[in-house]
Amino acid sequence: MPLLASDVMDDSAVILNDVSRTLYSYTVQLPLLKFANRDLELLLINHGIPVTRERSASIDYTANSATITLPSDFLFPIKLFERADGSSDPWVPMIERDFESNTVNPQTTLTEWAFRDGNTINVVPCTVARDVQLLYERQIAVITSQSSSEEIVISRNYLAAKTAEYCARFIGRNEESANSIRDNESFRAQDALVRSFVLNEQGVRYRRPRFTTRRLEVR
How much is the mean pLDDT over the chain? Predict the structure, then answer.
């Protein structure tokens, strides 16, 4: 079943000892859940978890342009490739630079790129149209309401704990309670979430214990 924002906020209310959501309603919690969701995005990226990595469709590069058009969910680039416009040729890797070269000779390929100026992929202008493919880190689904779907289903415990922590800190103005939730719930849920992804990448699967146990032999 999909994980909804309301599911996370129900769990957060439990942590806050407000099961009926008398104080911490969906409306009250939602802005803090949005904060927690952005924390989740950074957590996944900072730990190199590939769930937020994306491969773009072919991007049209217009001749003589100094930048690459970016996908709407783009955060930052990993690798770029190019090939002839409209072709099915193999993609050719482009070279990442800190700054694009200062060249005066017209080029018929892009060859290199530089990510700078805030949120821009810069290239040395090419005299012909090209196709570009981008490997990049993307945003996770944005939360807009209690019925929004949370993209990362196994993040439920982490998001609930983080939302509860923020509610206690910024709405309840209770640093002691917020720090307690952080130390006892948020850190534990974060560690479990990261470990789950790491073990999955390593091909280690959780095995449930057997329903039966071996009886001790009576002597």
Answer: 91
Higher pLDDT, 122 or 205: 122
> What ranges do the domains of the chain cover?
3-50+148-201, 51-138
pTM of the predicted model over 0.90:
no
Residue closest to 30 by CA, chosen among 171, 183, 152, 139: 171
Query: In the chain, what is the greatest distance between 2 CA atoms, to the nearest angstrom?
Result: 91
Helices 187-201/156-166 angle, 10° precision: 160
Mean pLDDT of 81-102: 95
Nearest C-alpha neighbor of 170 from the set 69, 37, 66, 29: 29
**DSSP-assigned letters across all residues of 56-80:** --PEEEPTT-SB----TTEEEEEEE
Extract long-range pairs of 38-47: CB within 8 Å, 24+ residues apart: 39/162, 40/140, 40/152, 40/155, 40/158, 40/159, 40/162, 41/75, 41/139, 41/140, 43/158, 43/190, 43/193, 43/194, 44/140, 44/152, 44/197, 45/75, 45/137, 47/194, 47/197, 47/198
